[in-house]
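Figure 2 data, in text form.
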Amino acid sequence: MSVVGVLQARMGSSRLPGKALRPLAGKPLVWHMIDRMRRTGVCERIVLATTMDPRNAPLIEFARAEGLEVVQEERENDLASRIMQVVSLTGADFLLKTGGDCPLVDPDVMRGMVARAISTGADFVSNRVRWTFPIGLSCDVVSASSVRWCDSNLSKAEERELFAVYIRDHPERFKVASFEHEHDLSHHGWTVDTPEDYAFIQSVFDALYREGGCFGMNDVLRHLEAKGSA
């Protein structure tokens, strides 16, 4: 079973423009996401899935310099088509995908989700079925067959944008598996959507990142506990 990593990212965020290339511990945010996806050891290739917006040019240039392949969708919010382009490009059986606002996504969590998908043959394995992980460790493992079905059959704009949610919410059609932590940690919000989020994530990387290393979810939890903000 072939697995391809997918980073859904673009530069046109309304609340925090250009966040994908904003620095964290001296490296662009997206660099850390690429590094963490590579550290799973399960992705044969990694693809940046973005849009035709000209503002994405520096992001595309950076991704290609890092060895990623790139797909671009003309329709800004048509994620079904955007991700279908990855399936067509790579011929993968499964896609491990995450959004461009999750620089703390954990390699161990991603690796466990891929293992679950391969061992069970699930169409959709996610920590977003029932939230127990910190918000910001969000990722999905999606079968190529389910992406093809969505691209061919979903016609409403909102369904095509949120096609992964459609898969999640239709277990009668797709085999869906929830990937959960033993404790409910969903009260933690670790995404980068606003300047305040970015300042928080900057402080975490400044405290924990070391060149050549990769800290995980438990390291962040211990750091927050030590600061009294767990």
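Caption note: Residues 98 and 139 are 5 Å apart (CA to CA).
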